[in-house]
Design brief:
The protein is of the alpha/beta class. It has a domain at 67-157: 2-Layer Sandwich (Dna Ligase, domain 1). It contains ten helices and 14 strands. It has helices at residues 36-46, 86-112, 161-170, 181-192, 225-236, 240-251, 257-282, 303-309, 330-333, 347-351, and strands at residues 2-6, 10-19, 22-32, 57-60, 67-76, 119-131, 134-136, 146-157, 176-178, 196-201, 206-212, 214-221, 292-296, 324-327. A hairpin with a 1-residue loop joins strand 11 (206-212) and strand 12. It is globular and about 75 Å long. It starts with a strand and ends in a 6-residue tail after the last helix. This is SHS2 domain-containing protein. It comes from Candidatus Wildermuthbacteria bacterium RIFCSPHIGHO2_02_FULL_47_12.
Length: 357
């Protein structure tokens, strides 16, 4: 199975084989993906002849291109005593889906000025049902006055469709699926029963997901690893590629004391800003928060990120109990043996196989 995770600036890939519930990693790599088309061509060329196309390749796209939001919607029934039959179920779900899509459009319009015609919905997945406030596995055959759904919409902006179509064309010679990381996270949480706050500190943005049995909240904040890179460029007068390399060395502790002290103040300010925005986002969750907080993504290894998230930033948020913050690594998702198993930049990639379960 080929796994490909296109980030804002890097493309991560792995060729894996499932073995008794675990993964054998046969090939893997991290590529520059500023040109998504070039990165896709490079990955397909590197894995050519090694792929077994019986299982679809699982591909995720940058969060700016392939978006997701959690939606809640409900409808009142005219006759609460009647049990819902197949025909009424179809009508109820069509009504709720239309309402949820309208709510998505309104949310995007209110937050970004995006109009209905600017949005293309690719998937609308119902995660859970409730009748009169009680969770049910399906609404078919139940009586009740009110039906509620909890759903996840996956969508893109129309202006980004040409870029998406170009990627689709690159993979058209093989079976494949585009998977939003939140869909893979939903599948993972259902299998592992791991309620948590998941924070992916990517290059251009941080993606936040809250899981309580299902994914109940999704958000993105516009800060990430690129802000640390830019600080290095400005402070040390470096080119972008050199600054990115320096950032990796800094995260690994491979920096002299003087250099570390020279950039630490700026890095701390950026990390504090990311922490503040993450806390502000989580304050909008209309539920108490699970105590497990998992950090991953390339910038999650920076010591300033660790200091901020292990500090007092979550003090005023409604956690069940004192939050426990930790890095989430590929080896925590699967029993894998390969050199990248402790690199959190690869964690989103290794969520993807759960979407095929």
């Amino acid at each position: 199975m080929l796994l490909v995770d296109f980030g804002e600036n890097t493309c991560k890939f792995a060729l894996v084989k499932k073995q008794e519930g675990n993964l054998e990693v046969r090939q893997w790599g991290i590529e520059d993906s500023r040109s998504l088309e070039h990165a896709a061509d490079h990955v397909l060329e590197k894995t050519k002849g090694m792929r077994e196309d019986a299982e679809p390749a699982l591909v995720s796209l940058p969060s700016a291109l392939w978006r997701s939001r959690v939606l809640y919607e409900g409808v009142e029934r005219k006759n609460a005593a009647l049990r819902i039959d197949k025909k009424e179920k179809e009508a109820i779900l069509a009504d709720l889906s239309a309402k949820a899509r309208s709510r998505l459009v309104k949310q995007m319009q209110d937050s970004s000025g995006i109009l209905a015609e600017d949005i293309r919905v690719h998937a609308f997945n119902i995660l859970s049902y409730a009748i009169d406030g009680y969770a049910v596995p399906d609404i078919l055959g139940f009586p009740g006055a009110r039906v509620d759904i909890h759903a996840m919409a996956v969508f893109t902006l129309v202006k980004h469709l040409p870029i998406v179509d170009t990627i689709l064309e690159r993979f058209s010679g093989m079976p494949f699926r585009i998977v939003h990381c939140a869909e893979a996270l939903e599948a993972f949480s259902c299998m592992k029963r791991q309620d948590a706050v998941y924070i992916d500190i990517g290059d251009a943005s941080c993606s936040i997901a809250v899981v309580q049995q299902h994914v109940i909240y999704l958000d993105d904040i516009p800060r990430g690893g690129k802000d640390f890179t830019l600080h290095l460029q400005e402070t040390l007068a470096l080119g972008e590629n050199t600054a990115k390399d320096f950032k990796e060395r800094y995260a690994a502790g491979d920096f002299s004391f003087l250099l570390r002290e020279g950039v630490k103040k700026g890095f701390s300010a950026i990390a504090e800003d990311i922490g503040r925005l993450a806390a502000k986002s989580l304050a909008g969750v209309l539920a108490s928060l699970p105590p497990s907080v998992f950090l991953f993504g390339g910038a999650s290894r920076l010591p300033e990120i660790q200091e901020v998230f292990h500090g007092s930033m979550f003090e005023r948020l409604p956690f069940h109990e004192k939050p426990r913050i930790s890095l989430l690594l590929p080896k925590d998702l699967w029993a894998v043996e390969f050199p990248g198993k402790t690199n959190p930049i690869l964690t989103p990639l290794f969520f993807l196989p759960y979407a095929s379960q």
